[in-house]
UniProtKB/TrEMBL annotation:
Pfam families: Response_reg (PF00072). It comes from the Bacteria. The modification 4-aspartylphosphate is found at residue 59. PANTHER family: PROTEIN PILG, STRESS RESPONSE REGULATOR PROTEIN 1. Coiled coil: none annotated. Keywords: Phosphoprotein, Two-component regulatory system. Residues 9-124 form the Response regulatory domain. GO terms for biological process: phosphorelay signal transduction system. This is Two-component system response regulator.
């Protein structure tokens, strides 16, 4: 199933360049073109202002701030943006906490194209 592309632009916020590159390549393979990357929340703020994304892949553990604080900021200022939390710690508590804070999806690292595709299709259905 092809995406209709209402999900673009997409922003990846992760401090690991390898993770950003990997996820970006997966998104390109899925047919997405408008993909932006940021290594921290400070640099992501400029991207949010200039080109508000429809979907954000957000690492929970960032060096400059906690991902859940960013999630709350995005929900307050960009309520139509769908946030997918990413973490290497997929504990039930972690997942439940992000859902309660308004995340639309959760992907445990390491992820693969199938997981990314599944969560994006789920978001597309509610978008």
């Amino acid at each position: 199933m092809e995406f209709v592309k209402p999900l673009e632009p997409i922003l990846i916020i992760d401090d690991s360049k390898e993770i950003r590159d990997y996820l970006s390549n997966i998104l390109i393979e899925l047919g997405f073109e408008e993909i932006f990357e940021s290594e921290n929340f400070e640099s992501a703020k400029a991207l949010l202002i200039d080109n508000p994304p429809n979907v954000i892949f957000l690492d929970i553990e960032l060096p400059d701030t906690d991902g859940t604080q960013i999630l709350e900021f995005i929900n307050d200022h960009y309520p139509n943006t769908h946030v997918i939390m990413c973490s290497g710690h997929n504990s039930l508590e972690n997942v439940q906490n992000t859902w309660e804070l308004g995340a639309k999806g959760f992907i445990a690292k390491p992820f693969n194209a199938k997981k990314v595709d599944t969560v994006l299709k789920r978001i597309e259905m509610i978008a």
